[in-house]
Amino acid sequence: MHSLFTTAALLAPLVAAQIQGHCDPADAVQPNPIGKMNKYKNYKTTGTVNGTVAILPIKLTAARGIIPAQYPILEEQYRAWLPSLAADEYPALLQMEQNHDLYHNGVAAGPSADFNRASISFPFVDRLNDGYSSFLYNQAVIISSAATDTIAQFQTYGGIVAPGFTASCNAYEYENGTANLALPPAQRGIDQAAWANTNTDLSNPSIAYRFDPTASSPYSTDFWRNVTNQPLFSSASNGKCDAVTRLPATKVSKGAFAGVHLEGEVAILKAFYPVKGKTVWSDVFGYKVDQAYFEKPQAKCATLKGFSVVEAPA
Ligand SMILES: *[C@@H]1O[C@H](CO)[C@@H](O)[C@H](O)[C@H]1NC(C)=O
Ligand SMILES: *[C@@H]1O[C@H](CO)[C@@H](O)[C@H](O)[C@H]1NC(C)=O
Ligand SMILES: *[C@@H]1O[C@H](CO)[C@@H](O)[C@H](O)[C@H]1NC(C)=O
Questions:
Q1: Contacts of 232 (CB under 8 A, 6+ apart)
Q2: What is the pTM of this model?
Q3: Considering only CA atoms, which residue is closest to atom 9 of ligand 3?
Q4: Burial of 119 from C-beta contacts in 10 A (0-12 / 13-18 / 19+)
Q5: Ligand 2 atom closest to Cα of 176?
Q6: Is the CB of 260 under 6 A from ligand 1?
Q7: Where are the domains of the chain?
Q8: Is the sign of the CA dihedral 192, 196, 202, 207 positive or negative?
Q9: Alpha-carbon gap, residue 87 to 226, rounded angstroms
Q10: Is 101 in the pocket of ligand 1 (CB under 6 A)?
Q11: Residue 226: nearest ligand to its CA?
Q12: What one-character DSSP code corresponds to residue 308?
């Protein structure tokens, strides 16, 4: 990986976020609505995933430099979803989410299995070289350090997990926060941050963001469903993939909990966007929502051929 981020001093005043790798069920977080359903008992894992996703428009050439060279990028697919994206751009996916109330084959795993996770990944990758099956390439991730099972699982895909991350239980804690991280005045445009690595060693990676609700977004909820449901792979040669299906319409995603479109700014430290140059983005659009999900971990990538949840509008 290239070293990057000439403005590494940006994170100099990093302070420890709340020290808590796991979440307290006493928080006003809704339970997994499908955990006990017979229909899902054959799945290794179900849960809820609550948090923020956003698109970072990056240069297509930069994406090409990060995604393993043997796998084409399905440019026609993402252009069908995002006709307004510039001709030389590609949509990288930022995820900052909390997984809650996990069940394994219908048995509750308890609060200690909850975890927070943040990453930049690269959707619309032709992992099977078949010209149409879209996968999400995600090499590096931040996961709550206490979630050792989840970390071990991610590592079986060949992924890299940043050490020393602790997070609070509030999936949106820093959205409008003011107290956690004060950035230098030279870096205005990003006032607050989230998912700070508790380790103040600048060799450790971080992702920082600030979002506010917006009435108009260039991205549809169907688009968010599409990118967040593409099966994940983490290394070029590893044959294992992770297939997560998010359900958009259970009670954790409705009424008071309906999804919200967001607009904001994002800064990324090294390892998560391994390209020199622009690592601070403004005018980023995102979406926050809680969703129930079911997961097939450790799936053979080849068995996920044609895995599809929602297709781009014709
Ligand atoms: C998602 O997380 C936020 C922040 O912790 C919480 O307020 C909200 O209730 C959660 N959503 C659900 C459906 O539990
Ligand atoms: C952040 O601020 C916006 C606008 O003031 C508000 O609608 C939203 O609910 C706030 N979010 C949180 C998590 O407090
Ligand atoms: C995403 O959209 C593309 C383009 O329509 C489609 O081919 C693909 O199957 C979709 N993937 C998922 C996971 O919905």
A1: 121, 135, 136, 137, 138, 157, 241, 242, 243, 244
A2: 0.83
A3: 308
A4: buried
A5: 1
A6: no
A7: 8-304
A8: negative
A9: 21
A10: no
A11: 3
A12: -
CB 34 within 8 A of CB 294: yes
Rg (CA), the chain: 18
Is the C-beta atom of 28 inside 6 A of ligand 1? yes
| Each residue's pLDDT expressed in tens, for the chain with a length of 314 residues | 333 222 222 222 222 232 233 444 445 689 999 999 999 999 999 999 988 899 999 999 989 988 999 999 999 999 999 999 999 999 999 888 889 999 999 999 988 888 888 788 999 999 999 999 999 999 888 777 778 888 899 999 988 876 656 555 555 554 444 323 332 222 222 223 333 333 333 334 466 677 888 999 999 999 999 999 999 999 999 999 999 999 999 999 999 999 999 888 777 765 556 555 446 788 899 998 999 999 999 999 999 999 999 999 98
Out of 52, 174, 176, 209, give the residue to mutate to test ligand 2, the one with the largest number of ligand atoms within 8 Å of its CB: 176
For residue 253, the ligand closest to its alpha carbon is 1
CA of 221 to the centre of ligand 3 (A): 13
Ligand nearest to the CA of 258: 1
